[in-house]
Design brief:
It contains six helices and no strands. It is an all-alpha fold.
């Protein structure tokens, strides 16, 4: 059975862990610089006076658990149905690349919401394409 569709899942999961680790380091730095208490930085919700970077990291980390669940489900469904082909693998990798671009832009800049929205929309179109293609194969 072709397992190539599982690699993009791995890549996106690793990227999500990286964002979480960066988020923890940035929050830890805010605590060590006495800008916030550990309870504030590692509790829910974040304090209103958190830095923009902390807020963007937090929001992006949450983003990586929203629509991506549908991506994971699509890839696993494609694999389980034995429908893995080069087209699905290309789409899955494109989705991951778009999500990484979205995250990097969101975390580091976010200066133009339109750009971020277009990349996000592109990733969701790719995922929808994956789902529609899978459904049409049955």
């Amino acid at each position: 059975m072709n397992t190539d569709i599982l690699l993009p899942i791995f890549y996106l999961a690793i990227f999500t862990f990286v964002v979480q680790m960066v988020q923890s380091v940035v929050r830890g730095r805010a605590v060590s610089e006495n800008k916030h208490t550990p309870e504030e930085m590692f509790g829910i919700p974040l304090p209103q006076n958190s830095s923009d970077l902390i807020k963007r990291l937090d929001r992006n980390h949450t983003n990586l658990f929203e629509y991506t669940v549908l991506f994971y489900a699509a890839c696993i469904s494609i694999f389980a149905a034995g429908k893995v082909d080069g087209h699905f693998v290309l789409l899955a990798n494109a989705y991951v690349v778009l999500r990484v671009i979205h995250s990097i832009y969101h975390i580091l800049s976010n200066s133009n919401f339109g750009i971020r929205a277009l990349v996000w929309l592109g990733s969701n179109i790719v995922m929808l394409w994956m789902w529609l293609r899978l459904v049409m194969m049955f």
